[in-house]
């Protein structure tokens, strides 16, 4: 079971779009996949077609050990993957976790019981470096960082990289950066291509080969509660996320060959 956190403390950079579409694309490739929504906004939950307003249980109950993951997860109505959903309740977890033992290890502990259930677990992190994100980073083997190729993209990346280093040093020796995913890419925009080239220069093979273009169909899909890759499979954005899933599967298989 490979557990990846999709993180970037900036909002609106494509974390949720990446989490939902990668989950659906992995599932479409036969991978047993769980998507964990760690954002109180519940956008990933809604984007999969799960109504955040009528949840029996959610990731909040799991983090506070009020319920088990087995009871809180739901099958995505739109794709062949499971969702551990979130809603506004989760905003309270931040405060409620503070006084508890092993507060940053709650998600890791919950996932440990499901080693055999999934090939991939994707964690959609909130736009902050909070206790929730920390739970995501402590549970994960690696981080996928979606970023827009714009002037300020690199600013802020160092905060995230430092946090990942600290978590690696103190809490989770398994954690590494899997890669940077360029999203909302516009090849006609000179700045976009320049920043993209800079990323490749600085981060080398930590930059995923797949480029996700800016594509309106990806932005439309959430309002139908369907991942973009299923909403309009032929669209350029959907094709990119399908290619990204194959890139991730190849990446993971290459670790098996060279441990
Ligand atoms: P985050 O989770 O980091 O806050 P989102 O995934 O919610 O970011 O994306 C922010 C907004 O940008 C959403 O409205 C989403 O539909 C849109 N968006 C994300 N990726 C793309 C893309 N490749 N093309 C067009 N719109 C996108
Ligand atoms: Mg989001």
Structure description:
The protein is of the alpha/beta class. The chain has a single domain, classed as Rossmann fold, CATH 3.40.50. The chain contains 12 helices and 8 strands. Helix 9 links the parallel strand 7 and strand 8. The longest helix is centred in the last third of the chain and has 22 residues. The protein starts with a strand and ends with a helix. The protein binds adenosine-5'-diphosphate and magnesium ion. Magnesium ion binds next to helix 1.
Assembly state (oligomeric): single chain
Gross geometry: globular
Rg? 17 Å
Distance between the termini: 15 Å
N-to-C SSE series?
Answer: EHEHHHEEHHEHEHEHEHHH
The tally of beta strands, per DSSP, is 8
């Amino acid at each position: 079971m490979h557990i990846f956190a999709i993180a970037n403390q900036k909002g609106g950079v494509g974390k949720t779009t990446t989490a939902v579409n990668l989950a659906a694309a992995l599932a479409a490739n036969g991978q047993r996949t769980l998507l964990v929504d760690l954002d109180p906004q519940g956008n990933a939950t809604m984007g999969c077609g799960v109504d955040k307003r009528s949840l029996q249980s959610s990731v909040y109950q799991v983090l506070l050990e009020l319920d088990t993951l087995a009871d809180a997860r739901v099958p995505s109505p739109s794709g062949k993957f499971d969702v551990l959903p979130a809603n506004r309740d989760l905003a309270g977890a931040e405060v409620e976790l503070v006084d508890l033992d092993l507060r940053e290890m709650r998600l890791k502990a919950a996932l440990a019981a499901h080693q055999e259930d999934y090939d991939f677990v994707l964690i959609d992190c909130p736009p902050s470096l909070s206790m929730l994100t920390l739970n995501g980073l402590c549970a994960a083997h690696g981080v996928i960082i979606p970023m827009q190729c714009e002037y300020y993209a690199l600013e802020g990346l160092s905060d995230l990289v430092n946090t990942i280093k600290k978590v690696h040093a103190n809490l989770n020796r398994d954690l590494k950066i899997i890669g940077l995913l360029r999203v909302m890419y516009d090849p006609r925009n000179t700045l976009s291509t320049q920043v993209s080239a800079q990323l490749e220069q600085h981060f080398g093979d930590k930059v995923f080969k797949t480029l996700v273009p800016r594509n309106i169909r990806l932005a439309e899909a959430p309002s139908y509660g369907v991942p973009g890759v299923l909403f309009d499979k032929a669209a350029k954005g959907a094709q990119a996320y399908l290619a990204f899933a194959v890139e991730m599967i190849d990446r993971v298989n290459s670790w098996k060959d060279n441990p």
